[in-house]
Design a protein that fits this description.
100 residues; alpha+beta; three-stranded antiparallel β-sheet
Length: 100
């Protein structure tokens, strides 16, 4: 495990690696929350983290991965796939999820 990352973060990063071929394939989402991938991702995250405030984070869509992406927030592998399909990815340099 990388220094400084929780077990939950490592599990999530493993799921992102496992499903990396789903990245950007928004058309595969059956029940879209929006016709725009970026809006769909934001609405899903808002559902998962209702008290999340993104105003200070610019284009970052999540708190540091070790805080947001534990099992208490993203609860299913399907949610990881859905976020990948919307263009969400992990930025290792900044240790957070970003919408590209």
């Amino acid at each position: 495990m990388k220094k400084g990352k929780s077990m939950e973060a490592e599990k999530l990063l493993g799921l992102i690696d496992k499903h990396d071929k789903e990245y950007g394939k928004f058309q595969r989402i059956a029940s879209k929350r929006s016709k725009f991938a970026e809006a769909h991702a934001m609405l899903l995250l808002e559902e998962l983290v209702p008290d999340w405030d993104n105003e200070e984070d610019g284009n970052y869509i999540a708190e540091p991965v070790s805080l947001l992406l534990g099992s208490e927030v993203i609860q299913t592998e399907q949610q990881v796939i859905e976020l990948l399909r919307c263009g969400v990815t992990y930025d290792e340099e900044r240790d957070c999820l970003v919408l590209r």
